[in-house]
Amino acid sequence: MTGEDYYIPAAAMAVSLAFKVPALRHNWRDPLLRSVVALLTLAGAVFAFAAPPTIAAVNRATGITNFSAPLVYCLITAFSASCLVLMVNWRGGEPEQTRRVSRRWILGYSLVVVALVVLFLLGDTPVERLRDFDTYYANTPYIAHMIALYLLAHHVAAVVMVVLCWRWSLQVRGWLRTGLVIIVAGYIFNLAYDATKMTAVVARWAGHDLDGLSTYVAPPLASLGALISAVGFVVPLVCQRLSDHWQTWATYRRLGALWQEVQISAPAGTPSVRMAWWSAAELRVIQRESDIHDGFLHLGPYFDKGLRDDAYDSALAGGSDEDTARAVADAAMVAAAVRARSADPEGRIVGEDEEAPVDTADGPRDLLRISHALRHSPVVQEVRRRVAV
């Protein structure tokens, strides 16, 4: 792999990190957000410092031959720990239990990092190796132990991630399950990376030469695995947000029939609220619901409880369930009240009879059912025809 093959994934991680940093500044106490930022930072650092040009530059800057080797190994180990901590915080649970498990992973992998540094200091690596350090020094005292230790730590993290994500994916649905399956696929590539690296190192221990597996096959597997895993972490967050946004706009549109129906009930001269085109969908839904409830208040004197009861019975007789029948009855009462209000432009009816408020105990979902009934219910259409006659 060339330097660009390492720097492109590092740049992708940096771009993702740039979108997360502002959120971290506003909500830095969120452990899940901190875990995401740590993972993106370490992933980008691994690719940036593992690039051969960076390895050579760091070695020259420090004046220590092969200083980049333990640096990259420590970054890979820290990245493995960040993945496990992110998974623990993502899955959630009791806060104290989550913090305890996270601290255990961090402590365990911190000890591995310290051991890697100590083993490098005890060993001797006089010849600079930019691409094949693992196999070149596979039989060197202490350095061989350092190489085996970082591969083992990475392999343990990959196995745990595959097991945790796969088990969790069997318990959930939707975008979260999709993201977990993608993460599993990414970590299968990481397991393949471990297998090729270990095979080449063990071959050196046995006196054979399979260096090509470590030098040319393993790096692309690691790059591909990291990118796929990053996509798996991002997909549930981004797609769920887009899905929620789409659902909000759908709610806004579905309330349109009811909103238009009650507009006639607004007193003459009532100013209409105009929202800017960039207004959030959530604000638009709230404003539309507010307009509808205001309309109900103005239509109150014209609500006919007897008509509502008749429509409710008709809907039940037509096979509707109780919730749908209640929505159809409310829609029929609203439709009749709107026509009664239109026939009384001077507002002479002052509500001498008992009012029958619309039942919206379940909030927006009832309004959605009422809006749907206004447009599609044959019971409502029959009430409209009867009122018109």
Walk me through what this model shows.
The radius of gyration is 32 Å and the shape is elongated. The protein is an all-alpha fold. Residues 351-356 and 360-364 have low confidence and may be disordered. The chain starts with a helix and ends with a helix. It has 2 domains: 3-243, Rhopdopsin 7-helix transmembrane proteins (Up-down Bundle), CATH 1.20.1070; 256-388, no CATH class. 77% of the residues lie in helices and 0% in strands.
Brief digest:
The protein is an all-alpha fold.
Shape: elongated
Write the element-wise H/E pattern from the N-terminal end onward. HHHHHHHHHHHHHHH
CATH topology of the largest domain: Rhopdopsin 7-helix transmembrane proteins
Secondary-structure content class: mainly alpha
Percent in helix: over 70%
Amount of beta strand: under 5%
What gyration radius follows from the Cα positions, in whole Å? 32 Å
Q: Describe the sheet with the most strands.
A: none
Count of separate structural domains: 2
Total strands: the figure is 0
The unreliable regions are 351-356, 360-364
Number of DSSP helical runs: 15
Keyword list:
single chain, 389 residues, mainly alpha, Rhopdopsin 7-helix transmembrane proteins, 2 domains, elongated
Write the layout of secondary structure elements.
Layout lengths: L2 H24 L4 H20 L1 H11 L5 H24 L3 H28 L10 H4 L6 H27 L4 H32 L5 H44 L1 H7 L18 H19 L5 H13 L4 H21 L21 H13 L1 H11 L1
